[in-house]
Amino acid sequence: MIYKNIPVNVITGFLGSGKTTLIKNMLTKVPEGESWAVLVNEFGEVGMDGALLRDSGAAIKEVPGGCLCCVTSAAFSAGLNALIRQVNPDRILIEPTGIGHPAQIMAQLKSNLYEDVLDVKASICMLDVRNLQDPRYIGHPAFFDQVDQADVLIASKADQYSESENEQFIRFVEQLKDPKKFAYSLNGEASISWLNYLRSSNDNSHIHLHSSHDHDHDHDHDHDHESKIKVVEGVSAITYEKCDKHLCSIGWIIKDNYVFDQFKAQSLARLMREEPDFWRLKGQLRLNASTVIDCNITQSEEFFNVKNEVSESRLEILTSTQESLARLKTAIEKIIF
């Protein structure tokens, strides 16, 4: 079979910026007769984003716990090649981890290996404008790499911003070295036409829905991994832990003999917001045999959404230190178990 000029887009954005929500929305607008595929990478091992996208109808390939930001990542090449061979899609969307450096991904996609196979289209970077004032975000090595590589900047969660935050976003875009298209999005609302925008050479222009800085690129990745099965009073859960120099994660896959109640879900949200080194929680929590909630919690917001049944609960948190990870692990397992 000949694979020829498959359009591919990289969708970046820091932790909690709304990448997965945007992709889910775009997958509802796939033109009739087309087949799209998604290659998704997460820092942790649980595979939360792949689980959240699985009911979209698109072919999903997960690379959990890996580093799509590394050119030498065999997992990236293997995952991408598998999508191309097995699906031969009409378009591929790539969602790197929120702390990924997309420069290497773009370089590999444009390498001789994929010449005439892939047609690299616009790169989109999601931003939560409220985080432009947070040194944890703008001081992270990956933040400006994601912005630099983007052709389109999308301010997600547009209804959450104050007038001053909107003004700050405009100033931020205007002072970038390379001009960018930019847009606002609410609840992941997106036009698939954004995927084909190319960066203008002379202006920063605002896309409607209908229509200089110093930073350090440090790509050292030393990962410590641990996984184990935990059984407490008949509750079977697999736990995964991982740390590198910038981020730590712990996740649980809890088998279908366990259900959460609303109080436990609210307790998790409250616990996260009280931890200063906490970055993000994502989860799919079974409340009963037929009710599941998606949850997404950051320091600035918490989001819960009722969805269809899944066979197991999944939960993953990201923190910036091992000490924070240990504190949250102990507290969360007291709530769960």
From TrEMBL:
Q: Which Pfam families match?
A: cobW (PF02492)
| One Gene Ontology cellular component | cytoplasm
The opening ranks of the lineage are:
Bacteria, Pseudomonadati, Pseudomonadota, Gammaproteobacteria, Oceanospirillales
Signal peptide boundaries: none
Q: What region holds the CobW/HypB/UreG nucleotide-binding domain?
A: 7-181
Q: What is this protein called?
A: CobW/HypB/UreG family nucleotide-binding protein
